[in-house]
Design goal:
Spore Coat Polysaccharide Biosynthesis Protein SpsA, Chain A; 7-stranded mixed beta sheet; 7 helices; about 15% strand; globular
């Protein structure tokens, strides 16, 4: 069984996408985050997998998150630990529930191609771990086919060394690794500008809408 987890915060003004607030109000930043989530979930819907999970935060937000993003998802609360344990416990719980391969992604990557996720599941057929490196030095995707707690411990989260430290831990514990192509997170106004330019180019090239929820949201803010 293949399971995909999307990590989602309750989009409350002032609590999400705070680095966008140098250009947008807290309410506008929360609206943009909601659009990011919707575009990410649309991508997830397009993939043929067995289980789709939203891991939400804070723990009392299930009703609010469910009302925004729909009842088709399986909802689980994130543990209240550091980022590494939040991710690992979400992955581990799905492995314990019977999944053979579990992948976790965030929602700062609304333009991520579905093919990257599909490739990641293929990598887990032959590897313990799969990673999708992000251009900021971290990773936007992590997947497991077995418990690998060491790669989530003693990592300097939210720094440019996350990916390299994780690779060091994988090598130290002799886990096998699969990789998918790099992609970019969107945290700052400048990264948002890159996202919009990339989406415009992709739409021109493919004649198919890219990140429609985000583009629509931005149009309403201008």
């Amino acid at each position: 069984m293949n399971t995909l987890i999307v990590v989602v915060k309750n989009p409350i003004a002032g609590a999400v996408k705070t680095r966008l607030q140098t250009r947008y109000t807290p309410t506008q930043a929360a609206e943009l985050y909601t659009a990011f989530v919707k575009d990410t979930l649309d991508t997830v819907r397009s993939i043929d997998i067995d289980m789709r999970v939203i891991a939400y935060d804070p723990p009392d937000a299930e009703g609010a998150v469910r009302s925004r993003f729909g009842n088709e998802w399986n909802y689980v609360a994130q543990v209240q630990e550091d980022l590494g344990q939040r991710m690992y416990q979400a992955l581990l719980n799905q492995l314990k529930s019977g999944a053979q391969n579990v992948i976790l992604i965030g929602t700062d990557i609304p333009s991520l191609p579905a093919s990257h996720i599909t490739q990641a599941f293929e990598e887990l057929q032959k590897n313990d771990i799969v990673l999708g490196p992000s251009t900021d030095g971290g990773y936007y995707l992590v997947g497991l086919s077995r418990p690998c707690p060491e790669i989530f411990a003693n990592i300097n989260w939210s720094t440019p060394t996350v990916f390299s430290e994780t690779i060091d831990a994988i090598q130290k514990h002799t886990y096998t690794l699969g990789l998918v192509p790099p992609w970019f997170d969107v945290d700052t106004p400048e990264e948002l500008d890159i996202l919009v330019a990339h989406a415009k180019a992709q739409t021109t090239a493919t004649q198919a809408p890219c990140i429609p929820h985000t583009i629509s949201c931005l149009s309403s803010l201008t």
